[in-house]
Every structure is written in C-alpha cells, then in structure tokens.
Amino acid sequence: MVERETPPKRVVVEMWSDLGCPWCYLAKSRLRTAIEQRPDADRFEVVMRSFELNPAAPKRPETVEEAFIRSHGGTAAHFMAAERRIQAIAREEGLEFTLDRLSANTFDLHRVVQYANAEGLGFEFFSAVQDGFFVGALNPYAPEALAGVAESVGLEGRRVHAILASGEYADRVRADRAEGVELGATGVPFVVLDRRVAAPGAQKVPVYGQLLEQVAARAADSSTS
C-alpha cells in the first residue's frame, strides 16, 4: 500500500487595512508579490480585516487633501508633496497612483468586504476596489460601482445593494478593528501571519518573504509533531 503524502498545512495571513491608506495599497501589492514568488503560493490564504482609520469621516466624498487638512491640519502644498513622494515609490514598484482621489467614510465598504470574506473572496474584492481607486478608475463610494466590482470577482451585485441599504455586517466590522487593536495594531497596514507573527507597516517584499518562510516552516513542524 502506497502511503499518501500529507498535503502542507494551509497558512492564514490576515491583513488589517483601509481603502484610502496609500501604504496599505503598497503593502497589499508587496505581500501578494511575496506570496506569488513562493512555489507553495496556493497554501497561503489572505484574509482581509477591517480597520477604519477615521471612523468620524463624513459620508459625503471630498478630495483627499481636504480630508487630510480637516483631520490633521497643515497645508495642501505639504500634503501634496507627501503624496508625490508616495506616488514615486508606487511607480517604482510598477503601481499606478493617481493624486486625484476622493475620500469619505469607509464603514459601508468594510461591510461589503465582510460579505466578500464570508464568501471566501474578501481579498479579491478588496484588492479590486482599492486598485481601481488608486488608479483613478473607480469611485468606491458609489453603490453601483461596488456592485460591479463584486460581480467581477464572483459575488452577487444584488447582495451588495441589499447590504448597503441595511446594517448588515456592522458588528463584524467593529469586531475586526477591536481584534486588530488587541493584537497590537495602532494603525494600518497590519499583517498577522498564522497568528504567530505580526508585521506592522508596509514591509518590503523580501521582509514579507522571510516572514512567510518562517510561518510556513513552523506550520510544517506543527503538522508533523
């Protein structure tokens, strides 16, 4: 009788993030690249976790510089200089990064992300929304736009409209943020790998790669012990 080889244990990578956070946009791409570079990439499951950076943000969209100045002070010139620095980093890494973005409350978006998570498509949905947002091709505050993205990744657009018209998943959004804080998050991006290692901030691809290797090795050890 031929003994079947035990498949490698799956590793869950949780990422606390918010839509308009530029460093979250970079971190998501870097984490995805680090996973794709591995020969066992399919054993890693990325789960999106909700973390509103500014729960008091208004629902009505405003420009990103207006939102920043209202929340943090300073001048538009200083803010845009910082934006251009991040834009340069993003473009060096092959990412489009428009400066012409809107900002608004993201709680409703996170509720839809929770629905996507429940269907096993949270990372795909959030990635599509955030990528479209930063390249300037998507208004994430428009229900029809979110429904369209949902359908493009295999979700139901009708469910998105129903969720946005209700209070579904609100408790889950709040619970995610509270859990992130308990694990040590003071902001985002915040990545937790296999509930063993936490990585705050936008780490470089090699750093994520080292952490993935670390947790993969530990997961393999635990499965054979």
TrEMBL record:
Segment forming the signal sequence: none
Pfam families membership: DSBA
Domain (DSBA-like thioredoxin): residue spans on this chain: 12-208
Family annotation (InterPro entries): DSBA-like_thioredoxin_dom, Thioredoxin-like_sf
Superkingdom assignment: Bacteria
Alphabetized SUPFAM superfamilies for the sequence: Thioredoxin-like
GO molecular function: oxidoreductase activity
Name of the featured protein: DsbA family oxidoreductase
Organism name: Amycolatopsis alba DSM 44262
Lineage: Bacteria, Bacillati, Actinomycetota, Actinomycetes, Pseudonocardiales
